[in-house]
Amino acid sequence: MMSDLNIPFQTIDWSKIPRTEHQGETGAAYWQTVQFPGLRLRIVEYSEGYAADHWCQKGHIVYCLEGEVVNEQENGPDSVLTPGMSYVVSDDLSSHRSVTKKGVKLLIIDGDFLQLKS
Q1: Which pLDDT does position 68 carry in this prediction?
Q2: Which phi and psi angles does 112 have, rounded to 5°?
Q3: Domain span at residue 83?
Q4: Residue 71, domain member (yes or no)
Q5: InterPro entries of this UniProt entry (predicted)?
Q6: How many separate domains does the chain show?
Q7: pLDDT of 3 strictly over 70
Q8: CATH code of the domain in which 37 resides
Q9: Cα separation of 99 and 78, whole Å?
Q10: pTM for the predicted model, two decimal places
């Protein structure tokens, strides 16, 4: 039911959201996560030399805040995000992973609204 997904107005002070570390194939990712029912907001920083340790099939809306990231696709062309750029994909429509040489800071939004509809 849609009423279960209502989010009242609020601000997020990202400086108060704890960071969690997630190791990549190389380097590390640092997540600050705010979770709502069916919606996850994250500020994610990939360290210099980061490469994801898996191919992701989740849907995301990704906005590049700082740095540069290469989005590798298992069955498609790579793309590059620089500050001010975004990519959007629904669940199960792409097998992708992130790689960065110098590090990057991203805003990533994902949730139930990105599930593939048949």
Answers
A1: 98
A2: -60, -30
A3: 17-107
A4: yes
A5: DHCW_cupin, RmlC_Cupin_sf
A6: 1
A7: no
A8: 2.60.120.10
A9: 10
A10: 0.91
